[in-house]
Specification:
Layout: E1 4-5, E2 22-27, H1 42-48, E3 56-58, E4 64-66, E5 69-76, E6 79-84, H2 98-108, H3 118-121, E7 124-131, E8 134-139, H4 146-150, H5 158-171, E9 179-185, E10 189-194, E11 207-212, H6 216-225, E12 230-231, H7 236-242, E13 248-263, H8 273-282, H9 285-292, E14 298-299, H10 322-332, E15 340-344, H11 350-363, E16 367-371, H12 374-381, E17 391-396, H13 404-411, H14 423-434, H15 438-455, E18 458-471, E19 474-475, E20 490-491
Parallel strand pairs: 2-11, 2-12, 15-16, 15-17
Antiparallel strand pairs: 1-5, 3-4, 5-6, 6-8, 7-8, 9-10, 10-11, 12-18, 13-17, 13-18, 14-18, 19-20
Length: 493
Amino acid sequence: MAAVVLGLCLAAAPGALLAKEKLTVDLVNEPSSLDPHVQWNPDSYYVYRNIFDNLITRDDKGNIVPQVATSWKYLSDTEIEFTLRDDVTFHDGQKLTAEDVAFSVQRITDPKFASPQLGQFNKIIKAEVTSPTTVKLTTDGPYPALLGQLVKLSIVPKHLVDAVGKDAFNLKPVGSGPYKFDGWQRGVQVTLTANDKYWGTKGPFASVAFRAVPDAATRVANLQAGTSDLAVTLDSDLAAQLKNSPKAKVLSVLTERVAYLAMNIQKPPVNDPKVREAIAYAIDKDGLVEGILGGYDKAVPEMLSPAHVGWVEGIEPRGYDLAKSKALITEAGAKAKQPISLLTAPVYDQRVVQAIQQMLTEAGLTVNIEMTDMANWLKQMQSGPDSIPQMAFSRWSCACQDADGVLFPLLHSSSGWANAQDPEVERLLVEARQSLDEKKRLSLYRAVHERIAKELFLVPLYQVGIIYGAAKGLQWQPTPNESMFLNRMTWKD
């Protein structure tokens, strides 16, 4: 494969826009980690992705483009060499080197480090410095999703991580990105300041405060009052309140994130195929999208979105059919009467969770909603079949826009998220992640989608349309991978 050399220019037209000293962003929760290799939930990612540079990134059109790497070339089907910039420095003044890149890859792929992102990068078996400005990565077999995964891999400073350790680094992270860590007031906010020595497009705001505001109505009220400039994770009802606001506006985009109903098919009663089929027939996806979500989202028949490599046309889901659902529950007998716990967390739209509960109740199941904080939700969901609950509402994004980043961690038994334990699906997933033949990959993923539709290891619901509220002056285009790059924003009064 030929070397790739691309340029990225995101600067605004001079003189057209005005400066704003401080940007205030209301998140749902505070970050669970600011170490980019420890966690990748949205509230963490929104913040730390501005502190750190990645080897490569995506532009606003979704193209993979350089960041720390200026170009890359395949040496073989399993070896890729990256040429690096020589003008990147960390916030402590130390130069970013090939050693830091190799170290970052080795760190996140080390099983002992136990990163929740390990399943996204475990095809990489070696990272080595080949010259002062080049790094070679070796994969365990061909890996077509590699570049899509690497857009998430942040570069950390080896000298500092080695000196202070993981815990201390998380409390005071140092990257090379357009913003520097300033402070973390636990439970309240994380503050960043602009990196005036940044090698690329500099941040337009002198400082940025990411606040923890769990209540969505409060996030909207803050926008209306002018005490915040950007709010994440609004629902359609709250978005409607901003339609005629003199101070705020709605920004939305269909993302690569897919909402789904997770089931632990090792636990009764969802270990019964008839119960799972009844659940699938009982859920009115179009009713959720149009009746509750205001049409911002889009029902999907498979566990991907059209933004993913691996999306295929023609997958036939079970449509909404309450009568069939009730009949299947009757056939399943007494075991279908066992109560089912439906795990959720505050970050999710509880209107949807409650609607699913009601739909399943109407079909004849007993479903109890269990609310927990996001940290505990993650712990239960990614700790293997013994810990994964009977059922959970979830939304998945790998930020890589490739099927491998979604289907492999959810369905392959090497992942803590998985419980299906289906040899045929695992064979297909392994073969798909090792083939460089695009047509063959799509054929393999079609087979995976068909297998999911038949066995119902989970129930895909809809492609998530994320809704932000923003101050009128904020100029920003949200993207399907849900990145919040501050240096791609501008302000215009």
